[in-house]
Design a protein that fits this description.
Length: 257
């Protein structure tokens, strides 16, 4: 097992990438703290893990709140004795996110508070715990949109993921000699609730699919496998990377017919 004796905390563990990663980490031997604001689905993730014979606990935490983030890390250490893996994954893509003219300030602020400040708070309280454990791995979920601009605008979201990516690089450099690795996962367009709610017509979906060489949306399970690599010791010399798992979208100039 690739995460034997490790304790992992996952934000946004009630759905999509977070849920699939929680299931996979637990299967690989980790004790998993699932956190989210959706308590019903978060408890459901834990139930799935326990039904598979593995160990997990749920903790309610809004990543935009410092006190919640401090408490979730304390919960992990109290429940399982340490923290080795921190997956700062929670994020939103607001339906009213548009271009600079149409996007309300409140939508921009909300997106930044969850997507960017959430990662900052995770690290602010998580890094001291990783130090106490003798080191560990942090994975921050950015996005392919940190690399490419789109004519279908989601300006606040794109700006937030650019911030996650640059924050990840600097965190990696700062903590490299403390045995703490920090990497960004940059998923391509996925068939999860977050994107399917945004691309809510067949026409919008097709408009996006045209740009993906593989011609399909990615699956949350495929992100979980990439995250497992970054979380485990198999990636022991990998830090500060932008791990693109995107069906080739960022490599494409023209896609196959
Ligand atoms: P999802 O909507 O299925 O899951 C996101 C989870 O985050 C939900 O359980 C939600 O309740 C939780 N969440 C929202 N606000 C929160 C808050 N304030 N505090 C704690 N939890 C909160 O989406 P997903 O596709 O699994 O997204 C996970 C991450 O992947 C996000 O950061 C997203 O931006 C990123 N991402 C997604 C795609 C995609 O196409 N779906 C592509 C690139 C990056």
């Amino acid at each position: 097992m690739r995460l034997q004796n490790k304790v992992a905390l996952i934000t946004g563990g009630s759905s999509g990438i977070g849920r699939e990663t929680a299931l996979l980490f637990a299967q690989e031997g980790a004790k998993v703290v699932v956190t989210d604001i959706n308590d019903t689905e978060g408890e459901a993730t834990v139930k799935m893990i326990k039904e598979a014979g593995n160990d997990a606990a749920y903790f309610h935490a809004d990543v935009a709140k410092a006190t919640d983030c401090e408490a979730m890390v304390a919960f992990a250490e109290k429940t399982y004795g340490a923290l080795h893996i921190l997956f700062n994954n929670a994020g939103i893509m607001h339906n009213d996110d548009g271009d600079s003219v149409s996007t309300e300030e409140s939508v921009f602020d909300l997106t930044m508070n969850i997507n960017v400040k959430g990662v900052f708070f995770g690290c602010k309280y998580g890094i001291p715990a990783l130090r106490r454990a003798g080191g560990g791995s942090i994975i921050n979920t950015a996005s392919f949109v940190a690399h490419l601009g789109a004519a279908t605008p989601q300006l606040a979201y794109t700006a937030s993921k650019g911030a996650v990516l640059s924050m990840t690089r600097e965190l990696a450099v700062i903590h490299a000699r403390e045995n703490i690795r920090v990497n960004a996962l940059c998923p391509g367009p996925l068939r999860t609730e977050l994107l399917m709610k945004f691309l809510n017509t067949e026409e919008k979906k097709q408009r996006r699919l045209v740009h993906i060489p593989m011609g399909r949306f990615g699956e949350a399970k495929e992100m979980a496998k990439a995250t497992l690599f970054l979380a485990s010791d198999e990636s022991s010399y990998t830090t500060g990377t932008e791990f693109l798992v995107d069906g080739g979208i960022t490599a494409a100039y023209v896609t196959p017919e």
